[in-house]
Amino acid sequence: MNPLIWIIPVLPLLSFVLLLLFGRRLKEASAHVGALLTLGSLVLSIVVLLNQWGGEPVKETLSWLTFGETTLSAGYLVNPLNALMLVIVSLVSFLVQVYSGGYMHDDDRFPIFFAYLGLFTFAMLGLVLSPNLLQLYVFWELVGVGSFLLIGYYFYKREARSAAKKAFIMTRIGDVGLFIGMILLFWQVGSFEFDEIFAAVEAGEISEGWITLTAILIFVGAIGKSGQFPLHTWLPDAMEGPTPVSALIHAATMVAAGVYLVAAMFPLFQASEAALTTVAVVGGFTAIFAATIGLAQADIKRVLAYSTVSQLGYMMLALGSSGYVAGVFHLTTHAFFKALLFLAAGSVIHAVHTQNIHEMGGLWKKMKWTAPLFLIGAMAISGVPGLSGFFSKDEILAATYADGRFGLFWIAVIAAFLTAFYMFRLFFLVFTGESRGIQEKVKESPVSMTFPMIVLGILALIGGLINTPFATYLSDFLAQNEALEIHHHETRWWIPVVATGVSLLGILMAWLVYVKKKVTRFSESAPDLHYILLNKYFIDETYDYSFVKGTRALSYFWYYIDRFVVEGLVGLVTGIVGWFSKIGSRFQNGQVQLYSSVAFAGMAILLLVVAWIGGYLT
Amino acid sequence: MSSVPLSVYLVLALILFCIGLFGALTKRNAVIVLISIELMLNAVNINLVAFAKYGINPGITGQIFSLFTITVAAAEAAVGLAILIALYRNRKTVNVDEMDIMKH
Lengths: 618, 104
Fold this sequence. Notes:
By secondary structure, chain A is mainly α.
């Protein structure tokens, strides 16, 4: 059993190396290599998950670096959370690779794309298996590199290039927080190991203030990676990457890494009420903030991107409200239905060659598979009863309510309403009504693309059953981790009713506005508000004016200081020396007469000086 | 015997030396430069003889020394002229300004 675990991340790495070396020769077969190796990881992950069911956590480490008394180690750790993440990551990665085989069919750099996917999957699996913060940080950065390469895959497009840079830089800002938090924890505890940190926290070796500070700094890392406000702006821009990448990065892996980090460090957060509140407030604010932006966007992928930001906010809200199970549960179901939505969106884009939803329409009859699958995804995320999103969202609402955060609870309810509204706005605009501006014949996507969507569709349908109020499999499974205190809160009967009510209301509203056209569109009834939402609250512009322009102004200031003051001083020194040497070189004209004149003058001066000092002149 | 004071000899020597120095440093013709050097040497000779007669320790040493200097100066003039002729053969000039290859 044990040797299997380290093979899980190595297989995608192998795929990366193989495709880099032999990609040109393999051509179309690259997709098979990548998908098969990832399938291997998936099978092993499922074995590991099944072994974890009722089993003990597994931890194996090797000492990596020893200095003084301290030993840094590297290895792997499998506990229920990690095992679940392994399956999610390898499953979505496998399905995305299968899908990409169809989607990226005509691309010139086909093998390279799969090589990047392999690298990214390797990094993400490695991150999930890390037994200590340092190793996690290494893989965390590798995930960043992978996402940079994937988002910037169409590097010949300027937008893609800048989106890749933006994603990298924005997440780096968060990573600095994580890094500082990690170092501070190491300073306080003397170890990077998760279990030792938690033991120290439990034993009260670290003061309350330090716990709060380090937890919040680590959360800053999660803010960057998971696209929480105020570092969320990279995520929608990252839609410039190929659509399968969006499904992989923005549904199940990279953005989930932030949530995973908070979940993995949960005992630390639990020890500080202030840290939990920070997480909950940031999450709740992000949830409603991104949902409102999602209302007005016209690009199908951007709507989904803001929806991702919003759903990640939900997960953070759950974790911040001590709803560990709720957060992880929503992470799981979200991975299924959001990957499904992205893949379905990709299928639509593949067919109609546009991303603008106002140019689509009437695709229901033309895309026999994609349309119903998209509908399943939209229903799941909206929280229609019985689908996966319903259960996980209920769990979050219940956790928030049970934790006594009533303000955030109502914000989450409103965000749920908005989610249902914008998802069905998307659905109605894309799939119903008449075609607007699509001339060419729309064809359904090939089987390689519909198959992953069907798998995800089934999971989005039934995925919620792993943790219903009647059968709490997931909750029991996660509760195996002894470091956690998992609160079992009572589900109030009216919370699911309210949640169902708002989601159905949202769908109804969308139907009235976009199908029946009984209610005027919000872009007409409130044009100013619509303008603000369309421009994403001008966050990017604000950052541009404050940070970018500010940095630039400061740089110019120092540039001129350097140019004129520092360089002026240096110039003065060299100028003086140069002037002297120029004068001096004029004496060296090769004529003996001048030389002897100088010698004589020198001697005369010397004599004068001697006479002066000797007092002969007075 | 009306004695001429030492300072007069010294001033004469000084004037001679300065004329010689001026000529050596400013004249362009190498022959005149050589003559000016002779002037400076002779200024030294006057000094030597004057001190031999009126110095603190009068004696014959200064006069012997000046004879010696005159001999050396003659030899020096011969060598200087020989160099000058060699130079003239090579450069077709006795102009000191044009003899500036030392800076290379």
